[in-house]
Design goal:
Blueprint: H1 3-37, H2 41-67, H3 82-109, H4 119-145, H5 148-177, H6 184-211, H7 218-229, E1 236-245, E2 248-257, H8 263-280, E3 284-293, H9 294-306
Parallel strand pairs: 2-3
Antiparallel strand pairs: 1-2
């Protein structure tokens, strides 16, 4: 991936994240005011979650900006790990918010209080629509640039939509049930906390895997192998290792060529393989090609048969 492509991917991620930041600031304020005036802790919990989303989105912004920096002497593979690291921080923040909401909703359940006001339902419907729309927009951009951090930020929006939907159900039960059902709103907040915690776990896993250099989806390796196999002079392929570094991929590939060709010819074939892969996939930052003669493959097959 060239610096231009890296900067372009970062710009897409930053733009989608900024849209979420502005939306969350406005929604957090609206939900907090409506929750306080309407006596709804579920709505206040929702506002807390939106406010935490602002801080999380700023972490994502920082991670993307650092990940987009070019390689230097201290970081020869670039700064890509900043991106999944930001995603991990966001997931942990989401866990923390879930625990805080669960504690507060439990306290509200055991404390007698009035039922929420009916107008809070209108606020919640608007929130669900806005947050689900934001989720679809941000996750589309995150998938487009294959960013773990941006996808994590998108799921923050989906979590917010889920908690708002839970709050809507809880408040509706409290209003319809009347006396004795006032705590339905708080039980909804407790359910929302469980949903948030589950989503935090789902978001933490891919970022941890990326930090640990887990293999990317199989179709990426299959695409690389298909392109490399089509290069003239390539007789077969052996090992192919792909790892994700933030917004880009690094490939280690063993290419098998005729054993009788010159070192120069083998070197040229290796360069053609690298160029073909990087042309086909703009997300690949570098390809390390190891040339092996066909005799190595024959020897390996014979050894496997004997065993």
């Amino acid at each position: 991936m060239s610096q231009h492509h890296r900067a372009h991917a970062a710009a897409i991620g930053i733009r989608s994240t900024l849209v979420g930041v502005v939306a969350n600031i406005l929604l957090a304020a609206v939900k907090a005011i409506a929750g306080i005036l309407g006596n709804s802790y579920a709505l206040i919990a929702d506002a807390i979650e939106s406010a935490s989303d602002v801080g999380s989105s700023l972490v994502v912004l920082g991670g993307i900006k650092i990940a987009s920096l070019p390689a230097d002497g201290d970081h020869p593979y670039g700064h890509g790990k900043a991106e999944p690291l930001a995603a991990m921080i966001v997931a942990v923040a989401l866990f923390t918010a879930a625990i805080g909401i669960a504690i507060e909703s439990t306290r509200e359940i055991i404390t007698p209080h009035h039922a929420p006001a009916a107008f809070t339902l209108v606020v919640l419907v608007l929130v669900v629509v806005i947050k689900e729309t934001l989720f679809r927009f941000v996750v589309r951009q995150g998938t487009r640039i294959q960013s773990t951090a941006v996808n994590t930020d998108a799921w923050h929006h989906r979590s917010d939509a889920m908690t708002s939907a839970a709050a809507f159900v809880g408040i509706s039960v409290a209003l319809i049930g009347g006396e004795g059902y006032e705590s339905a709103d708080d039980y909804a907040a407790l359910i929302a906390a469980v949903i948030i915690g589950f989503n935090a776990y789902r978001l933490l896993r891919p970022s941890l895997q990326e930090i640990m250099d887990a293999a990317p989806p199989l179709e990426i390796e299959e695409g690389i192998r298909a392109v490399a196999s089509a290069v003239p002079g390539v007789r077969a392929l052996d090992k192919c290792f792909v790892r994700k570094m933030g917004l880009e991929y690094f490939v280690d590939l063993h290419v098998i060529v005729e054993g009788g060709i010159s070192v120069l010819d083998g070197h040229e074939i290796g360069h053609h393989v690298k160029d073909a892969i990087m042309r086909d996939n703009s997300g690949v930052a570098d390809v390390l090609v190891h040339i092996e003669p066909t005799e190595v493959l024959t020897s390996f097959r014979n050894r496997s048969l004997n065993e």
